[in-house]
Design goal:
Layout lengths: L1 H10 L3 H4 L2 H11 L5 E7 L3 H14 L5 E7 L6 H11 L3 E5 L6 H10 L5 E4 L11 H9 L5 E5 L13 H15 L14 E4 H7 L10 H8 L6 E5 L14 H15 L6 H26 L4 H24 L7 H33 L2 H24 L4
Parallel strand pairs: 1-2, 1-4, 2-3, 5-7
Antiparallel strand pairs: 4-6, 5-6
This protein binds guanosine-5'-diphosphate-alpha-D-mannose and manganese (II) ion.
Length: 393
């Protein structure tokens, strides 16, 4: 391609002026050897960090064939525009834009799956991971036969100084201790988000990954078919310069959910457990509203009606924020979702009462009849909400 373009440019008179520099660059880009290493970078609101990161990678990976794949969840700050501006000039830069989705782990999974390099490295897009350690991580896999090389803050030479505050340090240490009890191999920093590994190994683990929250490395370890050969490489976790951390209470809840999921070995979908938990909170909300209504002198039927409505709205809100956080509805779609949720739950309630009555008529057992009705209603609510409201893929 390059040859063809340049020979055409050489022979045509005045062609030098007419050559489109972008076409030439693109042609040269296509003539480049394929990358040996794909660096996958999840990013959300990291506009200011994209350019410095690519510049830092260029220095750190000099002499290697690499590409960087940014996976952006439609950041409001326009991170993708910055990625595309760089990609136009540099064929090593690629961007994946995901719309209507959120999540660090799932972003990493999609980035890795889009690559064809034999080795993939994962790093944050906020300059907190020291790119000068990438070479050592890559060599451990490419040259020394390790399956995974992990950037660790907790081996001699590593440091966690960049964690935002003491509370984050405490959480991180407590989490690591909890996780180490479940790990198939001893790792000093299983919560690290900075690692390199064989792409085929990652790909094999994908069907078993829970893909929620922040802890993709841990997810890979807990889902790997075989015990991987691992090397830990020390690195210093730098403080953030631009932007802010996205790790919040909900991400911590997702972490707990992932651990529970692994503990149940995927037997029960974790989303379903979340949905049930939210349902239980809904019952408490219903009872609380009923109690208030009673004190205000409202009759039972009206009180229960208001209680049920408030509980359903609260359930919708909690499910939208927690259970289906990765495909959360906003704006007009959220209000449409709420109306649909109320309808689905009403059908569920009618089915609940109908089934419970039928079972009660046949065996006269209060508890069994009630539990069967409720169980069928919750499965109905979950299945239909997942497909029609949040459209889980
Ligand atoms: N696409 C996408 N979608 N990217 C995200 C999302 C998301 O929903 N949430 C966070 N990210 C990106 C951020 O933009 C950043 O590049 C990277 O993931 C890490 O997010 P931070 O919010 O900066 O996390 P942190 O610094 O508090 O924690 C990180 O470092 C720890 C130590 O290595 C994470 O990597 C942790 O998993 C890790 O334990
Ligand atoms: Mn960070």
């Amino acid at each position: 391609m390059t040859v063809l373009l340049s020979s055409m440019a050489d022979s045509a008179p005045g062609a030098q002026r007419d050559v489109n520099p972008r076409a030439v660059r693109a042609a040269e880009g296509m003539a480049r050897p394929a990358a040996d290493i794909s660096i996958v970078v999840p990013c959300y609101n990291e506009r200011a960090n994209v350019r410095p990161l690519v510049a830092a990678l260029s220095v750190a990976l000099k002499g290697r064939e690499w590409e960087v794949i940014f996976v952006d969840d439609n950041s409001p700050d326009g991170t993708i525009d910055e990625i595309r501006a760089l990609a136009e000039m540099d064929a090593r830069v690629r961007g994946i834009l995901r719309i209507g989705r959120r999540g660090l782990s799932s972003a990493v999974i999609e980035g890795v799956l889009s690559s064809s390099a034999p080795i993939v490295a994962v790093m944050d897009g906020d300059m907190q991971h020291d790119e000068s350690c990438l070479g050592a991580l890559i060599d451990a896999v490419a040259r020394d036969g390790y399956d995974i090389a992990v950037g660790s803050r907790h081996v001699p030479g590593g440091d966690n100084a960049g964690l935002a505050n003491g509370w984050r340090t405490f959480l991180s240490d407590a989490g690591i201790r909890l996780v180490q009890t479940l790990m198939p191999v001893r790792l000093s920093d299983p919560m690290s988000g900075f690692f390199a590994m064989r792409r085929d190994l990652f790909e094999h683990a994908v069907p078993r990954l829970s893909g929620t929250g922040f802890k993709i490395l841990l997810d890979v370890f807990l889902s790997a078919a075989e015990r991987p050969r691992v090397l830990e490489v020390p690195f210093i976790f730098r403080p953030r310069v631009a932007g802010e951390s996205k790790l919040d209470l909900l991400v911590l809840l997702q972490f707990m959910a992932m651990m529970l999921d692994k503990f149940c070995r995927g037997f029960l979908p974790i989303r379903f457990l979340g949905f049930c938990l939210v349902g239980l909170v809904g019952i408490l909300v219903n009872l609380a509203v009923l109690g208030i209504a009673r004190r205000c002198g409202v009759g039972f039927a009206e009180g229960q009606g208001i209680g049920t409505l408030v509980a359903m709205v609260a359930n919708f809100w909690m499910n939208n924020a927690l259970t289906y956080r990765d495909c959360r509805l906003r704006g007009g779609r959220m209000w449409g979702g709420l109306v649909l949720f109320l309808l689905i739950c009403s059908v569920g309630a009618v089915a609940d009462i109908g089934i419970a009555r039928a079972i009660f008529r046949s065996d006269g057992q209060w508890d069994q009849a009630g539990a069967a009705g409720a169980a069928i209603a919750v499965v109905w609510n979950y299945a239909v909400s997942s497909t029609l409201i949040w459209r889980v893929r």
